[in-house]
Design goal:
By secondary structure, the protein is α/β, with parallel strands linked by helices. It has helices at 4-11, 13-30, 35-42, 46-54, 63-72, 77-91, 109-118, 139-146, 155-168, 186-190, 196-209, 268-284, 288-304, 309-313, and strands spanning 123-128, 179-185, 215-220, 234-238, 253-257, 262-265. Helix 2 packs across helix 4 and helix 8 (139-146) crosses helix 9.
C-alpha cells in the first residue's frame, strides 16, 4: 500500500484539495446546511468555509476543523476516516512541482492549468494530426514547431517553451508514470519537420519510447479514410482515485489546444463526445506492432535517401 507522501506526490496536492472541497460541499448540502449556517456552527467566517470548499491552497485542513465538520454534517465513521486521511496528506510536505517555477513567466496562463493537471494524470490520451505530441518530441523537433508562425515568439520565448516541453517529459520517467496513449495521423510521419536529420532523430525517439510499458503509439493510416477526429486534435486526461476512495480525485477532462488559448471541457456530455471520437480512432488505427512497422519504414525512407521508400511508408501493413 502506498504511503501518504507517495499518494500526495502522485496525484498532486492541488487536485487533492479540490477533491476534498467538493466532497465537503456535497456532505454539507446533503445535510441541508447552508454555508452561512455551517460557518456559524463551526465558529468560522463564511469566507473560510467557502475557501475550504474551493480547495484554496491558503487553507490548512486542520484535524479539529475537519472533525467538527464531519460531526455537523453527520457523516459515517468511514467517511470521517477517509476525509481525515486525505486532509492529513495535504499537510505532508509535498514535492514542489517543477512547473511552479514557470507559472508567472514562461507558461501562458491558459496552459499553466493544463500542465498542472497533466502532472497528476493517471492516463493521458492524445490524438494529433499534424505533429508529434509534446511528450514525445525531441529538442530539435520542438524548436522547429515552436517557432511557427514566424514572428509570434521571440528566440527567448521559444527557448523557454521548449525547455518546459522537455521538462514535462520527465513524467514518463517517474516512478509511477501516467499511461500515455497516443494516436498520430500518418501525415505526422511523412511531414519533414526541421530537415531530414531532425526527423530521423524524432522517429528514432518515438520508436524508443514505444519500448516503455507505459507508452502506446498507434498510427492512423491514410487508408482509414474519414474518421471522427477530423475536426480537431485533443487530449483526454483521467485521474487516479483519491486515497481510500473509489472516485477519482478529479473528473475526466478533455483539453483542446489553440494558438492563443485552450478549451477545458469536463461536462459529462462533452467527455462522452470525446470518448466516442477516441473509440472511433482506436477502431481505425493500426495496432502497435503495425504502427511500429510503419514508423520504421518512414525512418528507412529517410535514412536510405531513396524517395520511393516513402511510398512504402504510406501503405497499411
Amino acid at each position: 500500500m502506498k504511503g501518504a507522501s507517495d499518494l500526495s506526490g502522485s496525484i498532486g496536492t492541488t487536485l487533492l484539495r479540490r477533491h476534498i472541497g467538493r466532497w465537503l460541499t456535497v456532505l454539507r448540502e446533503s445535510a441541508g446546511i447552508s454555508q452561512d449556517a455551517a460557518a456559524r456552527a463551526l465558529q468560522r467566517g463564511s469566507s473560510t468555509i467557502w475557501r475550504i470548499e474551493a480547495g484554496d491552497e491558503r487553507i490548512r485542513f486542520r484535524d479539529v476543523d475537519v472533525d467538527a465538520m464531519c460531526t455537523l454534517y453527520r457523516v459515517s465513521p468511514e467517511t470521517r476516516h477517509r476525509l481525515l486521511t486525505m486532509t492529513r496528506e495535504t499537510r505532508e510536505a509535498p514535492r514542489r512541482a517543477w512547473w511552479h517555477d514557470y507559472t508567472e513567466s514562461a507558461l501562458p496562463a491558459w496552459f499553466g492549468l493544463y500542465v498542472s493537471l497533466e502532472d497528476s494524470a493517471a492516463t493521458i490520451r492524445h490524438f494529433v494530426s499534424e505533429s508529434v505530441p509534446g511528450l514525445l518530441q525531441t529538442r530539435e523537433y520542438a524548436e522547429a514547431v515552436t517557432r511557427l508562425p514566424v514572428g509570434l515568439l521571440t528566440d527567448e520565448e521559444v527557448e523557454r517553451r521548449v525547455k518546459i516541453r522537455l521538462e514535462r517529459q520527465a513524467l514518463l520517467n517517474s516512478p509511477r508514470p501516467p499511461h500515455l496513449r497516443t494516436i498520430i495521423n500518418q501525415a505526422v510521419l511523412d511531414r519533414l519537420v526541421g530537415g531530414p536529420e531532425v526527423m530521423v532523430a524524432q522517429l528514432e525517439h518515438i520508436l524508443d519510447a514505444m519500448k516503455r510499458h507505459s507508452v502506446s503509439v498507434r498510427v492512423l493510416p491514410y487508408s482509414a479514410g474519414e474518421h471522427a477526429g477530423m475536426t480537431s486534435t485533443f487530449t483526454l486526461l483521467s485521474f487516479p482515485n483519491a486515497p481510500l476512495a473509489t472516485e477519482p480525485v478529479e473528473p475526466p477532462l478533455a483539453y483542446v489546444d489553440t494558438l492563443t488559448g485552450a478549451l477545458y471541457l469536463n461536462k459529462a456530455e462533452e467527455i462522452r463526445a470525446y470518448d466516442l471520437v477516441w473509440s472511433d480512432l482506436e477502431s481505425r488505427a493500426l495496432d502497435e506492432a503495425s504502427s511500429r512497422e510503419m514508423i520504421e519504414k518512414a525512418l528507412e525512407a529517410l535514412t536510405s535517401g531513396r524517395p520511393d521508400q516513402r511510398d512504402l511508408a504510406q501503405e497499411q501493413p
